[in-house]
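Ticket #4471: structure export looks truncated?
Reporter: QA, pipeline team
Priority: medium

Steps to reproduce: submit the single chain below to the structure queue and open the exported record.
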Amino acid sequence: MISVGVLGASGYGGGELLRLLDDHPDMTVTRVWANSSAGKPLGALHPHLAHLADVPVKEFDPGDLGVDFVFMALPHSTSAQYAGQLGVTPVVDRGADFRLADAQAWTTYYGTEHAGTWTYGMPELPGARELIADSKAVANPGCYATAITLALAPLLPAGLVDPTDIVVVAASGTSGAGRSASVPLLASEVTSGVRAYKAGGVHQHTPEIEQTLGRFAERVRLGFTPLLAPMSRGILATSTARLTPGADPDAVGEALHAAYDDEHFVRVLPEGRWPATQMTMGTNAVVLQWAHDAHSGRVVVCSAIDNLGKGAAGQAIQNANLMLGLPEATGLPVNGVAP
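Actual output as written to the record:
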C-alpha cells in the first residue's frame, strides 16, 4: 500500500483529494497537514469524510514526512515555499506555482517571483503520459484550463481553426474560488444570479491555456470571460474559434472523436446531446459536444467538468497513478451523481 500525505487539507480541493484517496485501493492517507488547523481532527474540517474523521491534522514538518507520495493542495504562490522541503518524495502540486514556463507571464498574472516549471499534468494531451510517468514532480492543470484545453487541443494541429481568434465564456461553481470567507461568495450574493469576474484578459488561467494550446499552433490568442454560477461545483465552458477557410466542418467532429474515443475520462456526446455540469458531478470525467456555426463561420465546442474532480483532485490522482506505475483510472469515478 502506498502511503500518501495531503498538504493543504483544509480547503475544498484538499477535502476532495481526501475523499477520493480514501476509496483508492492502492493508496492510504497517513499524513494530513494544514498549518492553520493543526491539532484538530479531520472531521472538524470535513464532516462528510466519515472514515477519516478521527485522523489528526498536523502542522507540516519536513523532518517527519513519513510518506511515499505528497499531494499539495495549497493556495497559489504557496506551494513553492514547501516544494524544496520534500526531498526526493514524488509530488503533484494542485496549485499554479509550477505550471508556467514564462517567468514574466507568472509575474504578470500572479504578482510574485517565478518558482520554476514542472511537468504539466494533463494526461490526454499527446505525449503527456510518458512525461508524467517519468516525472517526480508534476504541476496539476487549472480547472478552467482543463475544460478549455481538452475542448480545443485536437483542432489546432489539424489546422481546423484560427488559433489567433479563440473566444471562451465559461461558468464555474463557487468552490472554484476556495473556502475562505468572502462577501461575493455569500449565498445571498450568489443565489439566483450569474456574475462575470476577472474579464478582459486578466484571469490567471489565460497564460496557462495559451501556453498549453501553443504546443499545437503558433500565435495562440485567447479572449476569456469567466462567470460565477449559483452552484457549488462544476464548469461549463463554451469555446469558439473561427473555422479555417476551406476547412471541412465535419473534420472537427472527426478530430475530437479521433482524440478521445479511446480515452477513459473524456467523452464526445452523441449528436444532439449537450454537456451539463450534472453529468460530471463527483467524477473525473469530461463531456464534450461541438457544432459548426455557419452563420458566423465559427466552431463551437462545449465542455463540462467537475472543477474539484477532473479540474483538481481527480486529475491529481490520475497523474499520481501514472507516476506510481498504477493503472491510470484507479480509484477515479466516471459515473456522475444525479439528480
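Status: closed, not a bug. The export was complete when the record was re-opened. Leaving a note from the reviewer for reference: The chain is about 25% helix and 20% strand.
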